[in-house]
Design a protein that fits this description.
By secondary structure, the protein is an alpha+beta fold. Helices cover 26% and strands 42% of the residues. It has helices at 51-63, 114-120, 124-139; strands at 7-17, 25-32, 37-39, 42-44, 65-79, 85-98, 108-112. The longest helix is centred in the C-terminal third of the chain and has 16 residues, at 124-139. It is globular. The termini are far apart. 31% of the residues are buried.
Length: 140
């Protein structure tokens, strides 16, 4: 948290080309049993941690994958479940090597086509990030 009482966090919209079939785009979603929700990998920043470094750390911790960061995506502003204002910085990130291992914080991951990911995400603000990723990749 910073001195204004905001929770600072960062994450990525993690994507890859499907290893199966047509090589279409897939987006990684994580399931958090504590909240029983589906979201993009993200988490609170450690004291003094830069947002991008925190985002890459969270992706690795939650999905088991390294990643290559790309374009900055829109920042999310909302009130967390404890009633605190939260600010989450996001980046597009292409998945690298890795293997998911279930844990207490994240017990499942799914790689889904964009339309299916948009449908599965719990929070509408996370659906907007899928659209932002598609815009960035389309322009690249």
């Amino acid at each position: 948290m910073n001195r204004e009482g905001r929770v600072l966090a960062a994450g990525c919209v993690l994507w890859r080309r499907s290893p199966w079939g047509d090589g279409g785009l897939e987006i990684c979603l994580v399931h958090r049993p504590k909240y029983d929700d589906w979201s993009h990998p993200k988490g609170k920043l450690k004291r003094g941690e830069e947002p991008l470094a925190g985002a890459l750390r969270e992706v690795l911790e939650e999905t088991g994958h390294s990643c290559v960061p790309g374009a900055r995506l829109p920042t999310a502003y909302y009130i967390d479940p404890l009633g605190r204002p939260k600010v989450v910085d996001y980046w597009a990130a292409e998945a690298g090597e890795g293997r998911f291992i279930p844990g207490d914080e994240v017990d499942r991951v799914l790689w889904l086509a964009p339309a299916a990911a948009r449908h599965r995400l719990t929070e509408p603000r996370d659906r907007q990030l899928v659209d932002a990723l598609l815009d960035v990749l389309h322009r690249a």
